[in-house]
Amino acid sequence: MAQKRLGFGIVGCGMISEFHINALSSLADKAKITGITDVNRDSAERVSASHGGLRIFDTLDEMLACKEINAVCICTPSGYHADAVIKAANAGKNVVVEKPLAITKEQLDAIEEACRRNRTTLAVISQLRFAKDIRKAKLMLENGELGTLCCADMYMKYFRSQEYYDSGAWRGTKKIDGGGALMNQGIHGVDLLIYLAGAVKSVYAYASTLARKIEVEDTLCAAVEFESGALGVIQATTSVFPGYPRRIELNGSSGSITIEETAITKMDIDGSVTEDLTFRKPVYSSASSAMNFSGDYHTLQISDFIDAVREKRSPFVDLAEGRKAVDVILAIYRSA
Asked: How confident is the model over 132-156, as a mean pLDDT?
């Protein structure tokens, strides 16, 4: 007997909501979009019209009162995530929330308490963990193919114009964006670095605002010590032209891997032929465009979330996993 489809509400109708709507539409056998809401009615009407007339709820409270909705996808600006997650948890809804989970420790702790109290299933969008080559690199590390991990670095040298920041009043603000290049764009790289290299023990950082008129950093560099003893660098900027694919380098005593965006492009393993995979340049890169990335990984992660709700288990990237990158970023900001 087929299981009942989960009803979803979309909270926030900005550009990222399209990835959630498209993902849910492709998962029509186990999910349906019950409605959308946005504080800007025009945005909600635009999204509704472009997707066949989706139901519009006037407020989040109205949406959460709807019994047909089992879960919500929170796609609002970062600073509003915490309030929406807590409201949804208190209303008995399960939650998919865009990165970052929240932008302060107080918000993170409040979310954790609300979800614990209400037994909420929550997934934090860290969709790049679902990429085939990321999982391959993870398995190679776990199997010891790189030997002792010595260095683990993440370099994100993207380009975002001043017009990009001016396109939304919240962009580049401390209160709503929570930070700059690292919190907004760099968080995916930080998440992957932690996922692959393990927990961070300490950081030391510098941050600057060099080329953009924003409240927060457009360029940052941090030295990182991992719990394993490995050392690394986290570098993030949105001000270098023309922008380059994010790069993660993992160097061990028996081998090394280079990952560009989500593709392994170079692999040197002791005792085997060096594999130069530079021809495998990533098809999608957010280096110079905020919208140039595949929605396939959103689909994989939301599918895992639906299965987790049905199976009464934790999703692949749950609350505990989803807050790790934010905790590291907040530590870096404190140092800088």
From this structure: 98
